[in-house]
């Protein structure tokens, strides 16, 4: 029975035999697409169960699958593992040179004996992981080679290797890139976008996806603001323009200004995250 | 680079589908792309030709179907359709809009032999 109209093999209307003017290509398409009766053109009986003009029905396969479905499924797996261990996982995203690693080093020092681990993502070198290890924290470096972002599979393997402790924090420092990491779920609790004041107030407008995907934006290097003629209020306004719900913190890893609010945010998430 | 990973994702779905449905060649694939998906179409088409080599979708035609972008306006509280991510609200002129969907990237269907 037809899933569209409910009809059976019985003709639903009487029509004259197909016009002789049907051209060869159409005749070919019709032959493979419809019920083999001269007075009943019944579409939607191919494997797809639906007819699309221009596509040959018998060979049309409906897929309806998200391109990133594999990554998303792996990310959900990571999320389950992390959630079972009560690990707060944060995906730190930014352009290269925003001060992610410096902020992480200072954060690790300030957190003292809070258990944590770090996954570092870069195209090349293990410089960042070495900087993190120098603070005494556990770190694993992922080099993506030509890749421009971390994906859920890489992070899943890293979690297997690092084995985060229960009730700990997992910082995932993504590849410095304000474009691609926005689209790849890693299984994190939240994305945290890091934006240094030297990058320009219109960065959120130029790369809206990343700031839309982030729960928190941290404006770093605020100690440099007086030397760079930047308007911190405009940074905030532009961040809120692309994501009206984003939380915003301003800090300087170098002077320590604003670090207390960031640490308080982390503590609050440790209690809150699922 | 990003488009290349997307096309690699499509390739792997094509290979899975070929095993499931028993086909050897894809002649056309229709991809739905939301307006806010952040996909560069020329880059996607370029990556397509390169990444599909040796797969059932080698030489397949890629057809991109644009899906509209909707956003919630935080000034008037209405969900509106906008053409560009940074467009103001067409109803109240407000500038704070949060996308609601529009970031889809989905293989709709494929024509196979």
From TrEMBL, chain A:
Q: Which residues form the CobW/HypB/UreG nucleotide-binding domain?
A: 91-249
List the GO biological process terms. protein maturation
Sorted UniProt keywords: GTP-binding, Hydrolase, Metal-binding, Nickel, Nucleotide-binding, Zinc
Among InterPro entries, the record links this protein to: CobW/HypB/UreG_nucleotide-bd, Hyd_mat_HypB, P-loop_NTPase
Q: Which domain of life is it from?
A: Bacteria
Gene3D superfamilies in the cross-refs: P-loop containing nucleotide triphosphate hydrolases (3.40.50.300)
Q: Give GO terms: molecular function aspect only.
A: GTP binding; GTPase activity; nickel cation binding; zinc ion binding
Indicate the family of this protein: Belongs to the SIMIBI class G3E GTPase family. HypB/HupM subfamily.
- Official protein name in the record: Hydrogenase maturation factor HypB
Q: In the record, what lineage is assigned to the organism producing the protein?
A: Bacteria, Pseudomonadati, Pseudomonadota, Alphaproteobacteria, Rhodobacterales
Q: Which gene encodes it?
A: hypB
TrEMBL record, chain B:
State the gene name recorded for this protein.
Answer: hypA
A GO biological process of this protein is: protein maturation
| Function in brief | Involved in the maturation of [NiFe] hydrogenases. Required for nickel insertion into the metal center of the hydrogenase.
Give UniProt keywords alphabetically: Metal-binding, Nickel, Zinc
Could you say which protein family the record assigns here?
Belongs to the HypA/HybF family.
Q: Which GO terms describe its molecular function?
A: nickel cation binding; zinc ion binding
Task: Please give the HAMAP family that the UniProt record associates with this protein.
Answer: HypA_HybF
| Transmembrane annotation, as ranges | none
Give the source's domain of life in one word: Bacteria
Residues the record lists as binding Ni(2+):
2
- This one is known as Hydrogenase maturation factor HypA
Q: Which InterPro entries match?
A: HypA/HybF
The protein's organism comes out as Stagnihabitans tardus
Which amino acids does the record list as binding Zn(2+)?
73, 76, 89, 92
Pfam families according to UniProt: HypA (PF01155)
């Amino acid at each position: 029975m037809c899933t569209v109209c409910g009809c059976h093999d019985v003709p639903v209307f009487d029509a004259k035999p197909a016009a002789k003017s049907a051209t060869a290509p159409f005749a070919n398409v019709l032959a493979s697409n419809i019920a083999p009766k001269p007075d009943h053109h019944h579409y939607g009986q191919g494997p797809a169960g639906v007819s699309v003009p221009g596509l040959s029905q018998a060979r049309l396969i409906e897929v309806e699958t998200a391109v990133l479905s594999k990554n998303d499924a792996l990310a959900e797996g990571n999320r389950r593992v992390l959630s079972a261990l009560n690990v707060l996982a944060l995906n730190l995203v930014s352009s290269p040179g925003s001060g992610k690693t410096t902020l992480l080093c200072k954060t690790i020092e300030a957190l003292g004996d809070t258990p944590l681990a770090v996954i570092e993502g870069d195209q090349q070198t293990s410089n960042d992981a070495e900087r993190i290890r120098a603070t005494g924290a556990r770190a694993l470096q992922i080099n993506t080679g030509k890749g421009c972002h971390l994906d859920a599979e890489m992070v899943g393997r890293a979690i297997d290797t690092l084995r985060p402790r229960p009730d700990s924090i997992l910082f995932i420092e993504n590849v410095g890139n304000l474009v691609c990491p926005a689209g790849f779920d890693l299984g994190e609790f939240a994305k945290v976008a890091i934006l240094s004041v030297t990058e320009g107030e219109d960065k959120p407008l130029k790369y809206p996806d990343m700031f839309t995907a982030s729960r928190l934006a941290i404006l770093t290097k605020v100690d440099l603001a007086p030397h760079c003629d930047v308007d911190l209020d405009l940074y905030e306004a532009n961040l809120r323009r692309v994501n009206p719900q984003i939380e915003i913190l301003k800090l300087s890893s170098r002077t320590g200004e604003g670090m207390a609010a960031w640490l308080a945010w982390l503590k609050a998430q440790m209690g809150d995250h699922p | 680079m990003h488009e290349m990973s997307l096309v690699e994702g499509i390739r792997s779905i094509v290979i899975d589908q070929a095993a499931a449905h028993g086909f050897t060649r894809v002649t056309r694939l229709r991809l739905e792309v939301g307006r806010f998906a952040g996909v560069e179409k020329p880059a996607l088409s370029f990556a397509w030709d390169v990444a599909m080599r040796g797969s059932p979708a080698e030489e397949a035609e890629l057809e991109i179907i644009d899906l509209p972008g909707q956003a919630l306006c935080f000034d008037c509280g209405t969900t509106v359709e906008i053409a560009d991510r940074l467009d103001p609200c067409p109803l109240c002129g407000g500038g704070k809009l949060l996308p609601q969907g529009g970031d889809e990237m989905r293989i709709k269907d494929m024509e196979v032999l």
